[in-house]
């Protein structure tokens, strides 16, 4: 008898910049921070991402600078509007 169970795997999407105009999809079998840490091991620059706690170690290294998620910024601006 086959047994099926749910998994929480991820496709991490990394978009380039004008000098590297590519999008890369990285699959990991789970949501652990080891996936992004391994993929971004040699990266230096700015990372625009959500508030996923798994990125915190990358920011502490000083070689990756956090750029906040626009969806969260827009939401707060929308909530603060006057009607």
UniProtKB/TrEMBL annotation:
<dbReference type="InterPro" id="IPR004291">
    <property type="entry name" value="Transposase_IS66_central"/>
</dbReference>
<dbReference type="Pfam" id="PF03050">
    <property type="entry name" value="DDE_Tnp_IS66"/>
</dbReference>
<protein>
    <submittedName>
        <fullName>Transposase</fullName>
    </submittedName>
</protein>
<feature type="domain" description="Transposase IS66 central">
    <location>
        <begin position="6"/>
        <end position="81"/>
    </location>
</feature>
<dbReference type="InterPro" id="IPR052344">
    <property type="entry name" value="Transposase-related"/>
</dbReference>
């Amino acid at each position: 008898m086959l047994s099926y169970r749910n998994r929480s795997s991820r496709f991490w999407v990394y978009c380039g910049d004008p000098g590297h105009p590519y999008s890369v999809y990285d699959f990991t079998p789970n949501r652990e921070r080891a996936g992004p840490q391994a993929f971004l091991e040699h990266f230096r620059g700015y990372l625009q991402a959500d508030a996923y706690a798994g990125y915190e170690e990358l920011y502490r290294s000083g070689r990756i600078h956090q750029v906040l998620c626009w969806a969260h910024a827009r939401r707060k601006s929308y909530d603060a509007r006057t009607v």
